[in-house]
Each structure stands twice: as C-alpha cells, then as structure tokens.
Write a sequence for this structure.
C-alpha cells in the first residue's frame, strides 16, 4: 500500500537527484588517496561537526530511538547526552588532535604505529568486516521502509538507495559524504521539527503531554520523563549502566575509535579545525534528543496502542502529516539513513585500502593507485551490501551476532587505545593480551548473562567489564614484558603539557 | 552446560555484591554523580595549558573566542543544566 502522495514522492525524487549531482560535481576535483579518503584535508570544521552528528543518528536510530522513547521514555536521551558529550570533549582535546597531527588515515594505522602491525591488522579486520555487514543491514532497512511508505517493491527501493549512495560516495569520496551529510542534517532537522510542531498541536502542548502520559501510561510509565533511572530498573538504561557502560566505555570507544566517525575529523584543514569540528558536533548533540526522542513521547500519547515501539515513527509519518510535509519528513528520514550508509561505505573502503591493501598487498602503491583502489572497493562493498541485505531477513541471527560482535570488541579496543595514548609502559604484548582478555570477558558474560545480571539486556554492563578486563590485562602483561623504547614512542603519546 | 553453571556460580557472589552496591545508591545521588563527572571534565579542560590561545604565536585580540576550552566548558555547563532540569 502506498502511504505517500505523488507530491511527496516528487520531493523525494528531487532530493535523490540533487545528491547524485553533488557527488558528481565534487568528484571531478579528486585525484589522490588523500583527496578521496580525507577530502584533501580541506574540509570545513563546521561541516565535519554536522556530518559527525548526522552520521551517528542514522535511520535505524531514528526509528529505534523514537521507538525506545515510546516504550521507556526520556531516559533514552542519555545516549545523546551523557552518552556523547563527555566522550566528544575528551576526543576533541586528547585523541582527535593526536590522530590529525600524526597524519594517519585510520585508527588501526595509529595502533600499528603505537604497538605493532599485528594489533593494527586485528583491529582493522574486525572493523572492516563489521562495517561491510552493517551496510547490508542499512540497505535492508531502507528497502523495507521505502516499500512500506512509497509502495515501491523491496528490491527496487533497495537498488535505488544503493545506486544513489554508491554513486556519490564513489564519485566524491569523503568530501561528498561530508557535503551531502550537511544538506541531510538540515533536511532531517526540518523534518523532525515539523513532526514535533504538528504533534504538539495535536496533543495540546508540553503540559498536556505530561498530564496525558500520567493519565494513560499507568504505573509502568511513572518514570517516563526521568533521565536518571534507579539501578534496579528492569530495562537496560539504569543510572549505573548508563554511567559505567555507556559514558565511560561504549561512547568514548565510538567517538574515538570508530573509523566511520573519526575519519572526517582527519580531513579538516588544521589540528585546531579538527578540535573545533568535534566541539561543534558536541554542541549540536545537545539538541538531538529534542529532535528524535520527543517524537516518540508525543507518539505515545497520540498512538498509545501500537504493537511495537519501533512503529511509532512510520505511523506518525503516515497519519499525522499532510501531503508535501510528509515528503519532506520522509526525505529527512532518508537523509538519516543515507548519512550512515555513506560513512560506513567510505570508511570500509578506507580501512581495506590503507590497512590491508597498502600494508599487505601492494606496499609501494602511489597515491593515484590507492585512489583508484578506494573507488573500486566502494563499488565492491555497495554490491556486497546489496547481496547481503536480503539475507538480513533470512539469517537475522547472524546479523544480530555482528551487532553483538561490535559491543564485544569495542570495550577492549578502547582500553588499548586509551592506555597506548596515556601510558608509555603499554606495549604490543600487553595490547594483544588486553584485546584477548577483553573479548573473552565480554563473550563469556554474553553467554552467562541471564545467570548473573538482573537487568533484561545488560550489554552496557558487559561493555564496562570487558573494558576493565582489557585494561587490567594490558597493564599486567606490559609490566611483565619489555617496554618500547622512548624513541619509538616519540609523537605517539599524549602529554598534558603540550 | 556444566561449565556455564560453574562460571555463573563463581561470578554470582561478586555480581550480587555489585548489584547491591549500585541499588543502594539513591537516584538523587546518582544525579549528583552525573553532574560531578561533567563538572570534573570541565575543570580538567580548563587546566589544559597547551590549549591556552595566548601561547599561540598568531593569537588575535579576540582571545575569548579563540579559546576552545571555554566553548567546551559552555557545552558541559549546558549539559549540566539539562540534567538538573530533566533529572
């Protein structure tokens, strides 16, 4: 069934055509790996800040966070507030300037210099595989959503999305990703603001929202507007899980160690611009929960009997918005989706080109050759994502396992990244021990989680304990083995004195 | 399965101890901890000497706007306000 009118579809088609043109125009000026992977290091800091934020949101989050806020309330906003802001401040002053100064293309490349090639290869392959698998999940979501809202068949919808994203990322690399992300941010904000205004008008304002939730929500939703929840909350967002698992581990691991996020900071014109980009992103992050959490809260009052929380965003799109406005809001949804896919596509291509191809296959490749390899891999990965996307429905277990894999290795990866940056005694033996101990701890805890955790979905606690295990093992083994010489650590460690 | 049970039995006392510890913390105290974390970060940022724009050779007269530390503190302050308002 087609839920959008012709005028809405026309808006969406114009938007998609605009993205293709932008990618083509930007791509005409690129010739080297630096142009393609780092935007020639000419990216504007404010565009990079916007791009970081919009890539983080993604369509899965847009639907998922609105769905979670529909179910558990305001506490989901912690993901964007204490779950982002401290980590971004830390990234801005400690990690990002450091990566920028060292001239690396990727986070594993830094780990390779700080520890050894084994650590670099291990982390690069883990991230590389995760990113390619995730691309399939993103495309599947887009195909399904377009099928539902526009009425195009699943494969047509998915192929159109893949073609548009593949074309502009292939043509313009990171510059195109950042430029289109910037446009997509404004469309996303416009769409969310429209849905909030129309939603509040329907509900009767903020006061009415609060009183209606109290009226229809029952005892289950007595903490609906609370940000800080008690530790014995049944859900995964208790204050302790949010603080230890999210704010201290998963969030820094994401903003500091995720190639898809960090890469665009490396493309800014100066170290100062790199810092400014992250701080600007953090500033924008303050407003994001109002844009993506509030629609879920409003949706609960207007549509209190939905089967699944995740249905709230598409339902609001379908029933709340007049023709024309629905097209704009849907373009915003599409924007969120594309901003994640293009980032992962570009970063997967960067990781495999710089950390695998250049390192292990063709060491003397010149910048033009690497540029061509990067573009070729962009096509390969988007085709691979198209092939993998339908499998998401058939083998959901595998793809959930890929998601689980991310939370399994993020804590330990952050542990060795942090120690490598601040503790000169950390060495490669310690790093490998830290990775193994951390991954073993998180895998074991996932296996026995029902037996020891009280919370229903304790992934935040698991991330915390895997980080603790990674740190402990890295310190212990590093102290027992030969340290790296001070000379080899020059310019590879952070100093508060500058 | 036996191995799973052994590990659970081994870790359960420690898990319960941790759980009892965090459950004993009132939500209001947890909120204070959140705010203290944000405030501590702001203080740390202000102590970063190498971020002082007066150290830069090309520093302009608009020192306030050039000091990224103050922008970071502003962001953290807004974040604290949000937590105080919404709790």
């Amino acid at each position: 069934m087609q839920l959008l009118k012709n005028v809405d579809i026309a808006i969406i088609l114009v938007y998609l055509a605009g993205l293709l043109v932008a990618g083509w125009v930007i791509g005409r000026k690129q010739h080297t790996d630096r142009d393609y992977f780092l935007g020639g290091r000419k990216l504007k800091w404010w565009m990079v800040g916007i791009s970081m934020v919009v890539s983080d949101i993604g369509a899965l989050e847009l639907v998922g966070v609105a769905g979670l806020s529909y179910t558990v309330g305001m506490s989901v906003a912690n993901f964007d507030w204490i779950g982002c802001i401290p980590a971004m401040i830390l990234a801005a002053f400690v990690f990002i300037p450091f990566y920028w100064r060292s001239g690396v293309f990727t986070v594993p490349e830094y780990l390779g210099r700080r520890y050894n090639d084994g650590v670099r290869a291990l982390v690069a392959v883990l991230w590389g595989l995760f990113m390619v698998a995730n691309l399939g999940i993103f495309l599947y979501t887009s195909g399904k959503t377009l099928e539902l809202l526009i009425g195009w068949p699943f494969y047509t919808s998915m192929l159109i999305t893949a073609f548009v994203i593949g074309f502009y990322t292939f043509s313009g690399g990171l510059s195109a990703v950042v430029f289109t992300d910037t446009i997509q941010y404004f469309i996303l904000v416009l769409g969310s603001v429209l849905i909030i205004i129309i939603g509040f008008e329907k509900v009767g304002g903020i006061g009415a929202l609060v009183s209606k939730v109290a009226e229809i929500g029952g005892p289950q939703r007595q903490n609906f507007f609370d940000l800080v929840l008690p530790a014995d909350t049944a859900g995964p967002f208790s204050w302790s899980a949010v603080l230890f698992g999210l704010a201290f581990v998963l969030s820094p691991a994401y903003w500091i160690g995720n190639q898809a996020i960090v890469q665009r900071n490396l493309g800014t014109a100066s170290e100062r611009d790199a810092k400014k980009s992250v701080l600007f992103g953090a500033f924008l992050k303050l407003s994001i929960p109002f844009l993506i959490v509030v629609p879920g809260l409003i949706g609960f009052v207007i549509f209190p009997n939905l089967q699944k929380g995740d249905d709230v965003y598409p339902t609001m799109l379908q029933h709340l918005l007049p023709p024309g406005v629905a097209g704009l809001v849907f373009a915003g949804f599409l924007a969120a989706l594309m901003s994640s896919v293009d980032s992962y596509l570009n970063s997967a291509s960067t990781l495999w080109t710089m950390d695998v191809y250049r390192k292990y296959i063709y060491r003397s490749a010149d910048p033009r050759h690497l540029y061509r390899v990067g573009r070729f891999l962009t096509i390969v990965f988007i085709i691979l994502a198209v092939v993998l996307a339908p499998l998401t429905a058939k083998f959901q277990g595998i793809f959930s396992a890929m998601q689980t894999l991310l939370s399994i290795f993020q804590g330990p990866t952050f542990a060795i990244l942090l120690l490598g940056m601040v503790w000169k005694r950390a060495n490669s033996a310690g790093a490998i021990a830290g990775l193994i101990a951390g991954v073993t701890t998180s895998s074991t805890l996932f296996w026995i989680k029902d037996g020891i955790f009280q919370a229903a979905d304790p992934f935040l606690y698991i991330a915390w304990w895997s980080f603790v295990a990674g740190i402990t093992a890295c310190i212990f083994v590093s102290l027992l083995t030969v340290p790296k010489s001070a000379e080899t650590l020059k310019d590879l460690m952070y100093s508060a004195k500058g | 399965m036996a191995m799973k049970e052994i590990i659970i039995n081994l870790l359960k006392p420690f898990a319960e101890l941790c759980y009892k510890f965090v459950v004993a913390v009132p939500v209001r105290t947890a909120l204070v901890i959140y705010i203290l974390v944000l405030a501590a970060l702001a203080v740390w940022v202000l102590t970063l000497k190498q971020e002082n724009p007066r150290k830069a050779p090309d520093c302009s007269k608009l020192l306030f706007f050039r000091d990224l530390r103050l922008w970071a503190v502003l962001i953290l302050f807004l974040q604290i306000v949000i937590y105080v308002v919404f709790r």
Summary: Chain A has a mean pLDDT of 84. Chain A has two domains: 6-394, 397-498. Chain A is about 75% helix and 0% strand. The CA atoms of residues 105 and 263 of chain A lie 7 Å apart.
